[in-house]
Amino acid sequence: MKLNDITIKDIAERANVSKSTVSRVLNDLAIVNPKTRQTVLEAVESLGYQANVFARGLASGRSMTVGIVTQKIGSPFYDMMMQGVIQGFTGTGYSPIFVDGQWEQSTELDVIRTLLGRKVDGLILLGGDISQKDLDTLRDRLPTIVVGRDVPGWENQCVYVDNFSGAYDATRHLIEFGHRNIAIIRGITHHQDAIRRFQGYAQALSDASIELDPDLVLDGNFSAQSGILAINSLLMRGKSFSAVFCANDMVAYGARLALQRKGIRVPEDVSIVGFDDQAESSYVSPPLTTVRQPGVEMGGVAAKGLVKLMQGETCELPVMKAELQRRESVSRITTP
Amino acid sequence: MKLNDITIKDIAERANVSKSTVSRVLNDLAIVNPKTRQTVLEAVESLGYQANVFARGLASGRSMTVGIVTQKIGSPFYDMMMQGVIQGFTGTGYSPIFVDGQWEQSTELDVIRTLLGRKVDGLILLGGDISQKDLDTLRDRLPTIVVGRDVPGWENQCVYVDNFSGAYDATRHLIEFGHRNIAIIRGITHHQDAIRRFQGYAQALSDASIELDPDLVLDGNFSAQSGILAINSLLMRGKSFSAVFCANDMVAYGARLALQRKGIRVPEDVSIVGFDDQAESSYVSPPLTTVRQPGVEMGGVAAKGLVKLMQGETCELPVMKAELQRRESVSRITTP
DNA sequence: TTATTTACTGAAACCGGTTGCAATCAGGTG
DNA sequence: CACCTGATTGCAACCGGTTTCAGTAAATAA
Asked: Which PROSITE patterns does the record associate with it (chains A, B) (predicted)?
């Protein structure tokens, strides 16, 4: 906890060399006599020198910071990814700067502009809505990785989870347990994840020769409140159903509560599955069967990958698997 | 989404003035002829000029970034505060850099050093463990605000919630509902918040002339898992109890689950109250009675306050009130 | 009319690094 | 011994702003 106004010049004097030599030692980008090198390093050590980031940035053009654009800080899945990103960058010398795009194109472009203004060396977009065109422009400008979004043509700069198969597995699980009338509460209509999950759901039904009943398809917005609303309107319709596949865990929480308020038990009367597997889901009542998104891993993978990109190497990014976590919110249907 | 390598020199040429004048207009720290000013601004506008942060930082010493030290990204309360911090800074021109101290003194000092190396203009510590001495040193060096921690002598640089009275109110609520045998699952032993909450609990009991029974005091670590463990060991002791005050909501979730697993109903058999009021708590079963910590507000207040400090003004920081949210996890005791 | 301000503006010196280019030095070669 | 090489190292020119200081022209005071 000590401050220092030691500059490279001080080091140079102390070691009896020129600024240039000190700089070379520090960045080892040229051959320096081992003995000189040693002297310089000792001077650095004993004076507790730390390079001034501004000067370095101004001269070299690199900032050693990366911009992270997230959507809705405070939502469980994005928080997991952020956590992973931070972990992924610790020890690499890069510092992440976080900004919030709030799921709004214009806001997102704004904050990206801010980041560019700050001369970040790379960019990680967690989700987001901006157009492929903007994305491509961005990529031309600096190393960029998109997480939680599958962008055509970005094969090795995308980390995303296979929403389709996750939803497929979840729905299939319900079907295997005897459910035929499976409602779905979708996420935000134009949201890519939401669309994929719906497709997985539809495919699973179709593969089991169950006709998709439009009356069992409800719209939501990923919030618990929207789960409540959806269940209420579903009950109004009077259609019978024995299971609900929810866009995410928060929606599932809302759905469960709404059902309970009407005296409908979960899972005895109606089964529920969610998506995300946020931390709370193991402990709610009943513990929620859900599809686990490896948010932390995704963030970590993205960070490590970006570091490689920024160093001019290429990187391979794995497609993350969304795995079903079977818990207690789904029960077997005994007799129809 | 357009890149620009426009420098102040380009603006100067375009407007037929010197770099100095452009700089003056941009920072309006000297009188400039309105007409000249206008010309410069037009040039800036039409070329889409954006100042280079490195150059500005190097010359002025200010970075327009602030460091935010958090503990455990991904934990609900810290996430709320982060969210508030981000909101608080948007539009101020300052960008937050987040680092994670992980509730470890040495890590925390490390990351703070990193931030200092990045020449942040100010610091917000969300929670944390570092010594008052280090804190004081830090404060001498640059504007600093501590959130979620009550530091003696830092009257206007601390944002914290009154844990004592929050816990007091929660316990008192249980007492008013007829409970006498109230267990408590504490947070991490040396954690200040945990200590205050325990004191509030103890005081409420004492004020109601209920003797504090050491057998009803359990230790936990703020995790759901620790709630489960605590309940199990409480049940082993064979002591009877009708209510549990939990260190935070996650612990309450765990506790509820553990009780249910033993066939004990909440709230019919045992009442539970938590602390935090994280987003899920309204929707779990039963909706959790808990003490609301205004995390987002706290983060926002801290950010706004820090901006004032960085501008050389003083700031007044309110003590945040922790308010009891009455929901359905507490029931009246009818007959003993 | 002349002396003084006042209002603006420009030149140039930083800020603390990086980097291209030239210079120096030691060892090897003919 | 003169010449050539490669290894090292220093000089000085940036990078793109901010800020001090001096200078000019117009305005006010004497």
From this structure: HTH_CROC1, HTH_LACI_1, HTH_LACI_2
For chain B, the straight-line distance linking the first and the last C-alpha, in angstroms and rounded, comes to: 70
Superfamily of domain B163-292: Response regulator (3.40.50.2300)
Write out residues 111-170 of A within 8 Å (CB-CB) of B.
Answer: 112-114, 116-119, 134, 137-138, 141
Q: Spell out which residues of B between 39 and 98 contact strand C, using CB within 7 Å.
A: 55, 58-59
Separation in Å: C12 C1' and A48 CA: 33
Q: Is the dihedral of CA B17, B22, B25, B29 positive or negative?
A: negative
In chain A, where the domains are located: 8-51, 65-161+295-320, 163-292
User: What fold characterizes domain A8-51?
Assistant: 434 Repressor (Amino-terminal Domain) (1.10.260)
Tokens representing A258?
Answer: 């709404």
Choices 3.40.50.1240, 3.40.50.720, 3.40.50.150, 3.40.50.2300: CATH for A65-161+295-320:
3.40.50.2300
Contact present, A223 and A254 (Cβ < 8 Å): yes
pLDDT, tens digit (0-9, with 9 covering 90-100), for A47-99 = 989 899 999 999 988 889 999 999 877 678 888 898 899 899 988 889 898 88
Look at residue B291 and give its three-state secondary structure.
strand
pLDDT of A124 strictly over 90: yes
Q: How many CB atoms lie within 10 A of CB B327?
A: 18
pLDDT digits (tens, 9 = 90+) for B192-207: 899 999 999 999 999 9
Is the Cβ pair B99, A97 closer than 8 Å?
no
The CATH H-level superfamily of B65-161+295-321 is Response regulator (3.40.50.2300)
